[in-house]
């Protein structure tokens, strides 16, 4: 009852401007989760495996951006493009060295390789860049405060959802309206039949990692501007939450990953806004939502069961 009383008191005392600011922050955080979650869901949709190194690819992308701007003095907009390219190459390198040799091996072997690739990237970053936290370079255009009436927010909070929806639109166009997308869908439905029908499996999987890693790079750059601290373990908790977002939406479903990301982002921000004393437990919100979703719909919000797939 105390929680309910405080909840209604907070709502009564909260101004429309303050509520709008919380909503914008939640959408911004949810957009970041969605960008990164898409990488998890794409790889699972085709290979039926979890790319545990994906979160650490995000971390490496943050370091690429940091050194590109601060050490090599490359303009931030050019660094943004170069980080996407470098991160896509890193994703392909991981796929070819850690996953491709185990393509026909048991799933447990691939899982262990994925975890090993994750630990390798974390320790490599710790060795190369040290464990000392670095501050992501300030980009005035994105970090400036924008006033919308009585609402004051960072410009990056408005940019992130726009970038996310543009990326989602382009990705859905590729998947649904191109030959490459048709090949991806064929491989996701039946790996062996697609190979027999002449689909270049290695090429399709490499493209999947390129797209997923590119979206991770975009998310990492936006994350660095929004949350400037960079460490070798940067991707651990965000990566875990993005994986949860993908599972909530129905892992393997792109739109589901986006929906799951927004559920987590808005939920985390609003639960702290309404119950400030629970701010230390905001990370637990993702796990609570995951448990509830899996209890009532184990395949996720937009996931389908094998019987539903057969009937379709």
Count of extended strands: 4
The chain-level structural class is mainly alpha
What value does the average pLDDT take?
87
Write down the Rg. Answer: 20 Å
Descriptive report:
There is one protein chain. The chain is mostly helical and 312 residues long. The chain has a single domain, classed as ABC transporter involved in vitamin B12 uptake, BtuC (Orthogonal Bundle). It is 75% helix and 4% strand. The strands form two sheets. It has a two-stranded antiparallel sheet with strand order 1-4. A hairpin with a 2-residue loop joins strand 2 and strand 3. The longest helix is centred in the N-terminal third of the chain and has 32 residues. 41% of the residues are buried.
SSE blueprint:
Elements lengths: L1 H12 L2 H32 L6 H17 L5 H24 L7 H23 L4 E2 L4 H4 L1 E4 L2 E4 H23 L1 H11 L1 H6 L4 H26 L2 E2 L5 H14 L4 H21 L7 H15 L9 H6 L1
Antiparallel strand pairs: 1-4, 2-3
What can be said about this structure in brief?
This protein is mainly α and 312 residues long.
Feature tags:
single chain, ABC transporter involved in vitamin B12 uptake, BtuC, two-stranded antiparallel ribbon, two-stranded antiparallel sheet, 14 helices, 75% helix, globular, disordered C terminus
């Amino acid at each position: 009852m105390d929680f309910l009383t405080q909840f209604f008191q907070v709502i009564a005392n909260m101004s429309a401007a303050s509520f709008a600011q919380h909503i914008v922050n939640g959408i911004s955080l949810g957009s970041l989760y969605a960008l990164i979650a898409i990488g998890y869901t794409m790889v699972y949709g085709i290979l039926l495996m979890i790319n545990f190194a994906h979160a650490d690819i995000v971390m490496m992308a943050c370091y690429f951006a940091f050194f590109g701007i601060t050490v090599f003095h490359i303009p931030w907009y050019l660094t943004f493009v170069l980080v996407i390219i470098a991160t896509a190459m890193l994703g392909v390198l991981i796929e070819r060295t850690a996953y491709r040799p185990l393509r026909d091996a048991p799933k447990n072997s691939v899982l262990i390789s994925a975890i090993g690739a994750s630990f390798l990237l974390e320790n490599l970053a710790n060795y190369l860049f040290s464990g000392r936290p670095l501050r992501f370079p300030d980009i005035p255009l994105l970090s400036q405060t924008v006033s919308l009436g009585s609402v004051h927010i960072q410009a990056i909070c408005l940019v992130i959802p726009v970038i996310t929806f543009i990326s989602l639109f382009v990705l859905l166009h590729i998947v649904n309206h191109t030959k490459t997308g048709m090949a991806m869908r064929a491989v996701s439905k039946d790996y062996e039949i697609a190979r027999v029908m002449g689909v270049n499996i290695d090429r399709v999987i490499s493209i999947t990692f390129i797209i997923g890693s590119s979206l991770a790079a975009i998310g990492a750059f936006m994350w660095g501007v929004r949350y400037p601290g960079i460490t070798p373990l940067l991707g651990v908790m965000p990566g875990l939450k993005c994986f949860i977002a993908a599972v909530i939406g129905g892992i393997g479903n792109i739109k589901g990953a986006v929906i799951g990301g927004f559920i987590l982002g808005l939920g985390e921000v609003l639960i702290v806004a309404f119950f400030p004393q629970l701010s230390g437990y905001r990370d637990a919100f993702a796990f609570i939502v995951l448990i509830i979703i899996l209890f009532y719909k184990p395949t996720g919000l937009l996931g389908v069961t094998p019987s539903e797939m057969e009937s379709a």
